[in-house]
Amino acid sequence: MLIRLGYDIQLETTADVAIITLLHVHPSREKDLREPDQMRAEPLLHLEDFTDRFGNHACRFLAKPGVLRLHNSFLIEDSGQPDVENLGARQIPVEHLPIEVLPFLTNSRYCEVDLLSPIALELFGDTPPGWTRVRKICDWVHDKVTFGYRFASSTRTALGLYTERVGVCRAISESSSSPRPWISARGLRCTLRTGGGRLMPAIVCPASAAC
Description:
The chain is α+β, with helices and mostly antiparallel strands and 211 residues long.
């Protein structure tokens, strides 16, 4: 099926502001584009593309004082099928994880791991480690959290998600409305993709790989 993606963002600044955006389709899906994924800026700016350390297509520019509009609209093709579940995926103890995957477990200002850890233990500590635990975390978020753009907040954290039970998805950045904070709090390294209207775990480190 064809999906039209896009955005129309307006910012107002009172001084020069250096901005980095993560608004492009991930390079792994560029082959599925049916129209160019090209960010447009009004007024015109010098846009410099680069790839960040996670492989995302990013862009940087200097916004001048005044109103800035960033917009885009394009088509992408998708099967519409949910991500494949790996029911046999195992959870590797943190002390045995390859060094290169440890950054995925670090917290951020959106994910208060120190405060979430006891909550995560209470909610999910009795489930078997591995895919079963990830599935239970995803189901909890799907069943307990109400999604809606009207709930968007630049200050809501993962703990706020737990207490308020509302939120939106933050693209690329730490998402306080996805299972990732819970997964990080339970010592799982996982990247997340949406599939079939549900948040699905895409990667859980297998026993023999440096995923």
